[in-house]
Each structure stands twice: as C-alpha cells, then as structure tokens.
Amino acid sequence: MVCLEPLTPDEFAHWYRHLGRLRLFWAKPVVELFPLYRLVEGCVVKVRWSSEKPRLEEAYLIILRRAKKLDFAATLRGTKILITPEEVEKSLYQARGGLYIYSASRPCATGLYLEKPPEGHPEPGPDHVLLYSGPDMKYLLYLNRWNFNIDYLWLSGPEHLDEAVESAICEARRLGGRYVTIATGDGHLGLIDHSAYRPDHLYNTYKLGF
C-alpha cells in the first residue's frame, strides 16, 4: 500500500530501513514499519524508530501527492513526517529536507572504485561502494549497496553533479537496482544544488510542527 512513486511497497520498505542509518530527522533506525491507511492523495505509514530514549519513538510518514488538507494529521500522536512534491507553509513545519530519485535507465558514466577516501572525508561504512572521478577529483561519493542511496557526496563544483549521479547509476544498475536516491535533511547534503541535475522524482520532506 506504500505510495511513494516510483518505488513498490517492498522496495520502499527495504530502502527506508537502510536509509535509517543516516539518522535524518525523517529517517532513523527502524524497528517496525507497517502501512496504516490509504488516502485519496496518498497514504500513511507508521514506523517505530530506535531511540536513545527509554522507549521507542513513534512516527508517521504521511506521503501525499497533494498537501492541501493536513487537518487529519493533528489526530496522529507522535512525530509526523510529510513527504510530498509540493511546498507547504513554513509555519507548518519544524525541519525540512528532500528526496531525489533518479531512474537507473538513465544514461550512465562509469566511475572509478576507491578503497579508502582521501584525508578529510568521513570513514565509509561496510555497506558503501566508493566511487570517484579519478586523480582530478571532480567528485567522490559513497553509494549504499543495499538501497542505492548516495549516503555521502562531495563535489569540486556543482557542474559535476551529473557525472557523480551517473556513476552511481552505472553501479546501481550493475548491482540490480532500479533507482538511485539522494536524501537530505539536518544539514546532510543540504549545500548541494540537486536541481543542477534534474531528478525523475523530487519530494520535499517535512517534520510537521503540530
């Protein structure tokens, strides 16, 4: 029932569980995830996140194609995350991020593998494939091999975003993925102008303040 196009319900659940390792305000380590109900313009998914608090943190993912009516969300008790392609009034949310989805059917460009990142870059995890442009260091990225999200991205200039994403697309395609994603929030990859390379699907993510 999960309605985040173009992902299937199983793809979304798998993708979101692995995304939780980034600990964004809208995606944290998942203990439980299940569809709650369908709406005319989307659906609501309930999740329980692992938390430093004594109890699990309950949250609701409100996925809407149109976000004109949000009154129903006031009845949900817990953290409320809105995922929508639309803009909402600033007074309605406490934090904002984004989700960029690129189809693996796009043209791609093969990047080079890297065993260890150069000094000054974060340590990759065991699930990461490191790709870079070569000695010219136009870009460096860490691609999660399980959900094909670009967990870390560094660019020497915004004009190299297309090359970076296309190298991730080639690798995702090789590993059997249908899409490459970039998730932002809490300052994570927030300084990159992702509109420089237009995604196939673009969503805004909000932590609602009511």
Describe it for me?
- By secondary structure, this protein is mainly β.
- It has two domains: 9-97 and 204-208, no CATH class; 102-203, no CATH class.
- The chain contains two helices and eleven strands.
- The chain has helices at residues 9-19, 161-174; strands at 30-39, 42-49, 57-64, 79-84, 93-103, 112-113, 128-132, 139-144, 150-155, 179-184, 201-208.
- A seven-stranded mixed sheet has the order 1-2-3-4-11-5-10. Strands 6-7-8-9 form a four-stranded antiparallel sheet, covered by helices on one side.
- Strand 2 and strand 3 (57-64) form a beta hairpin.
- The radius of gyration is 17 Å and the shape is globular.
Describe the structure concisely for a colleague.
The chain has helices at 9-19, 161-174; strands spanning 30-39, 42-49, 57-64, 79-84, 93-103, 112-113, 128-132, 139-144, 150-155, 179-184, 201-208.
List the helices and strands and how they pair.
Layout: H1 9-19, E1 30-39, E2 42-49, E3 57-64, E4 79-84, E5 93-103, E6 112-113, E7 128-132, E8 139-144, E9 150-155, H2 161-174, E10 179-184, E11 201-208
Parallel strand pairs: 3-4
Antiparallel strand pairs: 1-2, 2-3, 4-11, 5-10, 5-11, 6-7, 7-8, 8-9
- Termini separation comes to 25 Å
Strand content: 35-45%
Write down the overall geometry. Answer: globular
Overall strand count: 11
Q: What gyration radius follows from the Cα positions, in whole Å?
A: 17 Å
Count the DSSP helices: 2
Main β sheet profile: 7 strands, mixed
Total discrete domains: 2
Helix amount, in percent? Answer: 10-25%
Enumerate the spans where pLDDT stays under 50 for 5 or more consecutive residues. none
* Mean model confidence by pLDDT: 94
Order of helices and strands: HEEEEEEEEEHEE
Strand order of the largest sheet: 1-2-3-4-11-5-10
Structural class: mainly beta
